[in-house]
Here is the input.
Amino acid sequence: MKQRLTNWGGFPYKNCEVFIPENYESVVHLVRQHKGTIARGNGRCYGDASLAPVVIQSDRLNQVLSFDSQTGIIQCQSGVLLSDILELIVPQGFFLPVSPGTKFITVGGAFASDIHGKNHHKEGVFSDHVLSITLVNANGEMIAVEQGEDLFCQTAGGMGATGFILELTIRLKKIETSFIKQSSIRARNLQEIFHLFEKYQDATYSVAWIDCLAKGSEIGKSVLLIGEHALSNEVKEKNTLQVHHQPKWRVPFFFPSWFLNPIFIRIFNKLYYARPSANKKDQFVHYDSFFYPLDAVHHWNKIYGRRGFVQYQFVVPMNVSYEVIQQVLTILAEHEMGSFLAVLKLFGDAHQHRYLHFPMKGYTLALDIPITKKLWRVLDQLDDIVTNAGGKIYLTKDARLKKNHFEQQYLQLLNKEPTFQSYQMSRLQQDHQNVFLILGASSDIALETARLYLNRYKDAHLILASRNTAQLELFVKENGFQSRATVKYFDARDINGHHAFITSLHAKPTWVLYASGLLVENDVAQKGIDEWKDAVNVNYLGAVSVIETLLNHENGSDLERVMGISSIAGLRGRKANYMYGSTKAAFHAYLFGLRQSLHERGIVVQAITPGFVVTKMTAHLSVPGNAVLAKTVAESIVMHSSKRFEIYPNLYWRIIGKLVKILPEFIIAKI
Ligand SMILES: Cc1cc2nc3c(=O)[nH]c(=O)nc-3n(C[C@H](O)[C@H](O)[C@H](O)COP(=O)(O)OP(=O)(O)OC[C@H]3O[C@@H](n4cnc5c(N)ncnc54)[C@H](O)[C@@H]3O)c2cc1C
Here is the structure.
């Protein structure tokens, strides 16, 4: 089933072919049949870690296979949710050895991300409590893997890259009650909270909520929460082993994106810090409110609006933790990048020789931040700080880390076996995040667009394609774009060659502009089919062929914007140029339909509709006073952020475009 999928942060959305196998044989079959697959649990990772062109979901592999209430050893399939395990084990006096901030994740997902909880400094990561797993590897073989084996270490925290986990055997933790003895302690600043973490380092569970908008001497203002499993003689409840209830509340719709603004977050933070329970010792609370407070409301992620949010979580070594966290909080407060969920935790020793292992001895800070335009720039800056300090970004929360930082942070990379490859992993192996493919790149409009694009987007890459590669090479050299642009041969009329051309692209484009065009005068075109066939091929057939090929190819999977150079002449037939105009009209109508069809995939389609442009194509015509320069059209392509269909170079041509569509025929005939 084709689906437009996203994970918890609502960014990014990707097109995926989704399979939900019911048994192990189907998993094996799917792995053997498809390349570029990834396993998906409950989609509670924030970014693109469990998205790929082909997704194998574990929903129906959700059976607990055995549970020994003497030893606390449970064997279950990978799609079982932690919430289901809790329902079974808590009444029998057991608990999860490591628990994240939500119980709605699968055990497969817990192992693949090798999750940590509030007890990492004492009890390590999830995989420390897993005795064995069964995995379908890249060759479609089912293998049993014991703790300590090399494949076990690669798969724990391996983000699904080594295979599809079918089963796990986990050792649970004994508890006397389902309650937690919790204490909250206020800290006025970062110094105080670091001091408190040190003081309470023997507490089993510890975590701090931080007010990340606090500035100056209040930076790091926070509330530390510590907890222990309550003993049976400490709890007054009749049933001391109660399980959690199902959430009563749900957010029914996406909130407007302005809702979580700095003023709202500042008020929330003040109230949260000031509430009496923020400084209270030895309260007895149920595990559900201690570990999973956010689970009380279904779909709380919708309050971040349709644009979504990212969770930025990093860890830095102990000796630099204070300085780095202070620096990060200062930058976030300066930019008013608030998060009402900002969490600081202490990590214990790290595993050595694990491939994508996240934790290290030091502090980890996690912040939920709504997506805004400036967010990416600020987070790139934070990545520099974290990487230079020897820290890492948590991949299960990531949707935007770049290759250079990833490689510096995770020195021991997994082998790049392509069978299990999420969109996240292909992104992290790609040199460029923004790739602009310009087809018919030797036109004046295309060259101006290329220049403007690279000047505007410093980390972007261009693929310039046309028949005149010599001219493109010269352009690249003259502008000093050698390391940022690639030249390729492309002939719009060679329809049979389009598949090979798209396959040969070395990077997946995020934008594509079809700029090839052939102007044919009416009197020439009217002489016979040979005179205008080329115009049909270049202006319409070639355009549709290459765009469709890209859209249906793996190399088209990162597309965000498809643009074609249309023309005012294509809006309505006019006797002066209807032969040329009709080729543009066909392309215009194609783009309009394509826009509707790609809406679901989140791809924006636009018709660049210039009026008369001064270019070499129009050099032989007399230039009217309302003509625009190629540079002006290029600006309308690169600088605009609107999603509207027709993009005009200026207001004058916008009005002309609208008039052409509505004027009565007798007026049009006179133009
Ligand atoms: C509110 C909230 C709080 C969180 N708190 C924490 C926390 O405190 N600590 C922490 O460490 N994480 C935390 N997380 C992150 C979450 O625990 C991880 O992202 C977890 O991996 C999600 O599991 P999932 O079943 O939803 O898997 P998905 O999100 O679907 O997948 C996550 C990763 O696991 C892989 N995977 C899933 N199933 C399998 C399988 N069967 N075989 C192989 N690979 C598989 C995927 O390929 C992907 O790489 C939190 C997330 C949320 C939403």
